[in-house]
UniProtKB/TrEMBL annotation:
SMART domains, sorted: FeoA
Top-level division of the source organism's lineage: Bacteria
GO molecular function, one term: transition metal ion binding
Name of the molecule in the record: FeoA-like protein
Species the sequence originates in: Desulfobotulus alkaliphilus
Length: 238
């Protein structure tokens, strides 16, 4: 029986039949994933929390959704998303499982295919208290990672900004959903933000309910958005 992956049953063997998205098909092929490969849709709860890594541009923080889309070939040979790396693990970027907007955002952070990365640690839930003009509001740590700008002549993410110093927004990173959320706060290139404080936040669920988790026969797990999963057809293994 043929299914779209987002409608496929969980925890039973499946065969990849076809991918109706040229970019996604190409990205998966570059990681050695083709039609005919065995896979399984996994019924798992996941936590998409931000992680801090060291890459070509130094230390950067990836929101959980971004970290799930970057596939790393570890130095010992196995492959995982950055999201699943352990502190101290190293490897190089094997590929990306995302659209062009997020790929461009990752490139701003210095993350491209074949770049070397080292996992530093997971970032706890935090609120960033911000002043922009006469407005005061707060963002989650995940949203703070998606604001790229300049502070004291140095380019960095707002998640790495110093308290009380002017931060000039130069670019917003991420897909359409993230950009829409930042637009709701009127954050845009050319605006100046001031970090007033960073305070602990209460976790609000695991944050990964919309992700389709797929386990490949090799052990690699992929985290796909529902719209990506709808473009993949699978056959239930006889």
């Amino acid at each position: 029986m043929l299914f779209h992956l987002d409608q496929a049953p969980c925890n039973i063997p499946l065969i990849l039949s076809e991918i109706d998205d040229a970019m996604l098909s190409d990205r998966l092929a570059r990681m050695g994933i083709y039609a005919g490969d065995f896979l399984m849709r996994l019924d798992e709860e996941i936590h998409l929390g931000p992680v801090r890594i060291h890459g070509p541009r130094g230390h950067v923080v990836l929101a959980g959704g971004m970290a799930a889309k970057v596939i790393v070939h570890h130095d010992d040979g196995h492959k995982t998303p950055v999201l699943e790396m352990l502190p101290g693990e190293t490897g190089h970027v094997e590929g990306l499982v995302c659209g062009s907007s997020l790929a461009e955002g990752l490139e701003i952070l210095g993350i491209r295919e074949n770049d070397n990365l080292r996992m530093e640690h997971r970032v706890p839930p935090m609120n960033y208290h911000i002043r922009m003009g006469n407005e005061h509001f707060k963002l989650t740590e995940g949203m703070a990672t998606k604001i790229w700008g300049e502070m004291e002549g140095r380019e960095l993410q707002f998640a790495m900004a110093g308290r009380g110093k002017p931060f000039l927004v130069k670019q917003l990173i991420g897909g359409s959903r993230a950009l829409s959320m930042l637009d709701g706060f009127s954050i845009a290139p050319g605006k100046t933000l001031y970090l007033e404080a960073v305070t602990p936040a209460q976790p609000i669920g695991h944050g990964g309910r919309s992700q389709i988790v797929v386990g490949m026969k090799t052990g690699l797990r992929l985290y796909l958005r529902p719209d990506q999963a709808r473009r993949i057809r699978v056959i239930q293994k006889p």
